[in-house]
Specification:
This is FixH protein. This protein is an alpha+beta fold. The chain has a domain of 87 residues: Immunoglobulin-like, CATH 2.60.40.1220. The protein is built from two helices and seven strands, in the order ααβββββββ. The strands form two sheets. The protein has a four-stranded antiparallel sheet with strand order 1-2-5-4, with no helix packed on it. It has a three-stranded antiparallel sheet with strand order 3-6-7. A hairpin with a 2-residue loop joins strand 1 and strand 2. The radius of gyration is 26 Å and the shape is elongated. It starts with 8 loop residues before the first helix and ends with a strand. The relative contact order is 0.15. The mean pLDDT is 92.
């Protein structure tokens, strides 16, 4: 025996309420995941940083350094060339190699000058990486760069 039921207002309300509950639940889950995996701020006060940006950029450009980086066979190679195209070792090098989306795999490379480039052993899986560089020239000028790298 087949029973027929009619679709009334309460059924329609239940369907709509269920659909909205699913949508709100998914949105809350995604929002929580986004906030909980946020790696943090690049700068504490963007207004103050913006006041020095042009002067910092001009000082870095005046150095005329050509910087490149690559990862091959678990070795990170950082080449720094002066305005004449000659490789040199900056006075100070601080770097962080990590993923752009999270800080769980961040590493601090221990660079060694081999006469032509700075090299560091890094145990990182293949994929897209970002190298954040903070270098200092002999005259104290700071040089900062963010270099995207593909490890193969």
């Amino acid at each position: 025996m087949i029973m027929k039921r009619t679709l009334n207002g309460w059924h329609v309300f239940g369907i709509f309420a269920g659909c909205f509950a699913v949508i709100i639940g998914v949105n809350l889950t995604l929002a929580f995941q986004a906030v909980s995996t946020f790696p943090g701020l690049v700068t504490k006060n963007s207004y103050v940083s913006s006041q020095r940006f042009d002067a910092d950029r001009a000082a870095q450009n005046a150095l005329a350094w050509d910087v490149s980086a690559e990862i091959a066979n678990q070795v990170l190679t950082l080449r720094v060339l002066d305005r004449d195209g000659v490789a040199f070792e900056p006075a100070e090098v601080k770097a962080t190699l990590g993923r752009a989306t999270h800080v769980a795999e961040d590493v601090t490379p221990a660079f060694i000058w081999d006469g032509t480039a700075l090299v560091a052993d890094v145990d990182v899986p293949a994929g897209y990486w970002t190298l954040w560089l903070n270098m200092t020239a002999e005259d104290g000028t700071e040089f900062r760069r963010r270099i995207p790298i593909t490890a193969r």
